[in-house]
Amino acid sequence: MAGNLVVCADHAALNVKAAESIRDIVKKAIFGSGTCAVSLSGGTTPKSLYALMATPEWRDQFEWKHVHLFWGDERCVPITHADSNYAMVERELLSKIEIPEKNVHRFPVELNEADAIAAAYERELREFFGTNGFPRFDLVLLGLGENGHTLSLFPNRPVLNETKRLVVADWVEEVKLHRLTMTAPLINAARQIVFLVSGAGKAQVLKDVLEGPRQPEQLPAQLIAPSSGRLTWLVDKEAAALVSG
Q1: How far apart are CA 13 and CA 174, in angstroms?
Q2: Comparing C-alpha atoms, which of 66, 69, 94, 90 is closest to residue 79?
Q3: Rounded distance, CA 137 to CA 127, Å?
């Protein structure tokens, strides 16, 4: 199995463990370099985590003025749309914390054309990190879909073989929508990668990803293997029910 598996009692305990982990990673990064770059995950699993981090108990444990937030993937919809990953984070977290506007790096979906949005976001990443190679996030949060996808890296798509681009747009027939996504090599350059997996519906795919044969074309989450960083799987008991040991 790639990475460190941490099993929490339930979804609430998973949120607390995730918040603690994020806090510690952010503190360490700020202590070391004065700033922390985080790539956020969309989807349903982290929604309650972001709500927890926005509570008075938690929000003051972060030096938000030194934290820069990015998104690992996004849908080609307006930022006010119900399906927007940005909108979810804005509603659950950003609207309740004091973070400079310049520290919030969302996909420029107002450009409307998918390839143009992806290219613009890649330029922003390169400008922020100041590198021609693969930028190094301090932390990347990821989820796991029941079909084995992570970010918007869906099974059997050409984007899975991308080796140079940081961000791509991909028409995903499964959801009938253009998806914008960071690529696996960019994610694998991160210092810390944390998967959040919750619920019985994820039990089989989690077992397949962690313990099954390597078949990243069918299970894109298997592409995530940091080159020199740390990979952690934070899961609840229901999701871990079929994993050995």
Answers
A1: 32
A2: 90
A3: 14
pTM of the complete model beyond 0.90: yes
* Separation between Cα atoms, residue 195 and residue 202, nearest integer Å: 12
For tokens 């996004």, the residue is 74
Is the separation of the CB atoms in 65 and 103 below 8 Å? yes
- Cα separation, 55 vs 23, in Å, equals 14
Please write down the HEC assignment for all residues of the chain: CCCEEEEECCHHHHHHHHHHHHHHHHHHHHHHHCCEEEEECCCCCCHHHHHHHCCHHHHCCCCHHHEEEEECEEECCCCCCCCCHHHHHHHHCHHHCCCCHHHEECCCHHHCCHHHHHHHHHHHHHHHHCCCCCCCCCEEEECCCCCCCECCECCCCHHHHCCCCCEEEEEECCCCEEEEEECHHHHHCCCEEEEEECCHHHHHHHHHHHHCCCCCCCCHHHHCCCCCCEEEEEEECCCCCCCCC
pLDDT in tens, 214-245: 999 999 999 999 989 999 999 999 999 999 96
Q: Rounded to whole angstroms, how far apart are CA atoms 125 and 161?
A: 20
In this structure, which amino acid lies at residue 3? G
In this structure, are residues 101 and 210 in contact, taking their beta carbons and an 8 Å threshold? no
Q: Are 179 and 218 in contact (CB under 8 A)?
A: no
Tokens 């989820």 belong to residue: 143
